[in-house]
Design goal:
The chain is mainly α. The relative contact order is 0.15.
């Protein structure tokens, strides 16, 4: 908690006091926030970051639902081996897949675009692992009853299974969204010639003449604000979702 407090305290100091070591900033000033807003388009960066996080979360949820449903409900050859290979990608260090993804994006012409940030993150082995656990525990009697009523597999998934897994899906969506929102390294690799997401906007205050700590801390505080507000508004629902889903 102390680094977060120091971030907020520094952002509220007067520009001439940002290097002060006093724990309580006084007098308070919001000049650093106005300075940050003058130098970067905060609204555009927030919308871009929200769009990237939302697209990545939706893609990971969709693939996790479809893949976990197939692994949990159907029986086919090499099922265990395929599942092990799929989930095993979760154990591969990120640095191993980073270079192939980078060269593939270069071939597709997606470098320095927001699409290039989103596409390689559309699948999450961790999400599949979690959803398969819940899918495996889903009562098979309900699926068989739906089949006897003449429903297709696609209809059973979206009208029977998914509505009953809303708490687990909500908890997983929150985890994926926060993870995507806080991601810095991969956007920094893809967006080398632009600062189109909020986290990369911090680079605007780093220069050869010295770092501008006041506006940088103000923008970092603004980057934390949406997640904090989301948690405050949905606190009860988030806790219930985690308790009911079994995620800890």
């Amino acid at each position: 908690m102390f680094p977060i407090y120091w971030l907020v305290a520094t952002s509220l100091r007067r520009p001439g006091d940002v290097s002060s070591l006093t724990p309580l900033p006084w007098p308070l000033s919001v000049e650093n926030y106005f300075d940050a807003a003058d130098k970067v388009d905060v609204t555009r960066l927030m919308l871009n970051t929200f769009g990237v996080a939302l697209a990545s979360t939706c893609g990971q949820l969709l693939i996790a639902i479809l893949a976990s449903y197939a692994f949990a409900v159907y029986r086919f050859k090499f099922q265990g081996l395929l599942y092990l290979a799929f989930v095993g990608t979760w154990l591969v260090p990120y640095q191993v897949t980073m270079l192939p993804n980078y060269f593939l994006l270069n071939q597709l012409g997606l470098l320095n675009t927001l699409s290039g940030v989103v596409v390689p993150t559309l699948s999450s082995a961790l999400a599949v692992l979690m959803m398969r656990t819940h899918m495996s525990g889903f009562p098979k009697e309900l699926i068989e009853a739906a089949r006897m009523d003449g429903r297709s597999s696609w209809s059973i998934l979206w009208t029977v299974v998914v509505p009953n897994l809303r708490p687990a899906l909500a908890a997983l969506a929150i985890l994926l969204f926060i993870n995507s929102w806080n991601e810095y390294f991969w956007p920094a690799v893809v967006l080398q010639s632009s600062n189109d997401v909020l986290q990369l906007g911090l680079r605007s205050f780093m220069g050869t003449e010295g770092d501008q700590w006041g506006p940088m801390m103000a923008l970092a505080g603004l980057a934390c604000l949406p997640i904090f507000v989301l948690y405050v508004i949905l606190q009860r629902h988030i806790v219930n979702a985690f308790v009911r889903s079994g995620l800890k």
